[in-house]
Amino acid sequence: TLTGLTLPTSITSMTEFNAGELKTAIVTMVNPTSKPFDYSAELYMGTNLALMASAPFHLDAEQSKDITLPVTMPLEAGTYPVHIGVFSNGQSIGLYKAIEDVVIAPVIEPWVSPTGHLCEGTSEKDEDWAYLTLAYDRHPDSCAKYRRIFSGWSPWVEFTLPAITSSKLKCLLFKRTAPETISKVKIEVYYSGAYHTEYEADFPIEEWFEVSYTQNSVTKVRFSFYNTTSYRAFPHIYEVQVFDDTA
Fold first, then answer.
1. Residue 27: partners with Cβ closer than 8 Å, 6 or more residues away
2. Options 3.90.1150.10, 3.40.228.10, 2.60.120.260, 3.80.30.20; which CATH number does 111-243 get?
3. Exposed end of the chain (fewer CB within 10 Å): N or C?
4. Angle at 241 between CA 236 and CA 242, to 5 degrees
5. Could you tell me which residues come within 8 angstroms of residue 221 by beta carbon, excluding any fewer than 6 positions away?
6. Could you report the average pLDDT of every consecutive run of 10 residues in the chain (247 residues)?
């Protein structure tokens, strides 16, 4: 038999880890007998005893040894009890529970999507734009589409969100014209009681790009596209996200 199986203080006092983080469990094994034996150790996490790591080891008579078990932490946030199983010659010697459980911290997403939208100069939402909720559904393969003919600046489309401390946003845009006549986009950010123009230039097609600004409490962002002629032009907004500096 094995006795004195424990997890050292360095493991039991560091119980909160990040999802997917690589850590090493150190387990002290003691062979109290007068004969040498070959063993294997298995580390399990969770109430379902999911196997996370295993390692063979040898102990001489009355030998004590620290066994290392590299463990990749689970991806799901939650609390995981930890057990160590010990085997020799194909037989289970015992299942030992760690002193403390391991806690996987929830992943905090720093990029925040808007929660609503408004269109300028219309009596109803979405009159000029179709599928505006797709611009903040966190699926970059779907998009909001402008569906009116316009010359010059298009009406503003505004995205709202709860106040967050932010210093940048990112967006994924597209322009479909024949010939290409949309020359730029204007992006404004609402803070300190007013809108501020933070970007007015051409933009990459179907590529994320970021716009930085002075850190403030942000509650709204808005977009307008410039058409140099009266040709039919259809700007698309695939995704808009605002960075939470406190995350």
1. 5, 6, 7, 8, 41, 43, 66, 67, 69, 84
2. 2.60.120.260
3. N
4. 135
5. 114, 158, 159, 169, 187, 188, 189, 190, 240, 242
6. 36 68 90 92 95 95 92 93 92 88 87 90 58 94 84 91 97 78 94 97 93 97 90 88 94
